[in-house]
Amino acid sequence: xxxxxxxxxxxxxxxxxxxxxxxxxxxxxxxxxxxxxxxxxxxxxxxxxxxxxxxxxxxxxxxxxxxxxxxxxxxxxxxxxxxxxxxxxxxxxxxxxxxxxxxxxxxxxxxxxxxxxxxxxxxxxxxxxxxxxxxxxxxxxxxxxxxxxxxxxxxxxxxxxxxxxxxxxxxxxxxxxxxxxxxxxxxxxxxxxxxxxxxxxxxxxxxxxxxxxxxxxxxxxxxxxxxxxxxxxxxxxxxxxxxxxxxxxxxxxxxxxxxxxxxxxxxxxxxxxxxxxxxxxxxxxxxxxxxxxxxxxxxxxxxxxxxxxxxxxxxxxxxxxxxxxxxxxxxxxxxxxxxxxxxxxxxxxxxxxxxx
Length: 356
Fold this sequence. Notes:
By secondary structure, the protein is of the alpha/beta class. It is 44% helix and 21% strand.
């Protein structure tokens, strides 16, 4: 717990800091006193994370003078729905939280999304703090203020933007992650390297992600912070962060969310890279290098679902606008572009990636 703490400022409205390092859950109460007045804190977590970290977090918050309550919901993407969302809202109301109080999201991406959306909706908005416990939530979902739940028609179709009051990323939590869950986060980190920085991508090729995760998390957060500052509500540049997600979300939906998000995004990234290369949209070969990097980090590069199934699922994606959908195309490692295509062309585009 003596690790040095890195801090990255996110200059949105409101601005906040992302702290990265060991031992942050043990000291979260004192650290949050710097950004929160004395208030009631409702800790939202899931059934996987609660036995590991809930007592530590609640104890630290109480020691710092906060009134604390907690709510635990069943773990898994399949519970990221309107029923769980409603239950959290009823819990907050039952605890009589007011607009001066705060929600703490303790967990991975599902918890962060659920708790963040509840914070955005309850009393038309109260403060939220993110305490990510997975690599995926650390490098991606805890930063930027996007919150959502899934609907029957597709993933993340109902949500809101709510920037957190603070993000505390305790890298000690990574030691408790099963290899598959760690790999889930690696997919989002690798995506970031493909988007912005070949030198960052190279870290995933040589094993630095496992050896020095704090460095990788900090670089991914710094990149995302810059994008979010320039395009907070995802009107333009921020859409690049959806690299691999159109097909990835389709894979998740087709599997009934049995395939975890990062694994689905990895397959989606490999598929769109093969498709882009096949269709002549890249500046240099990218598909083989991306696929090799994903494989090295325990991630899939393909799917058993047909192009027809994936295109049908993707046609309901939230990135659709009328009869068009915007795809993120890797031109080369470290450089991607947005490409608007007719939804009707999704089938041959996805098929080209499956056949590569």
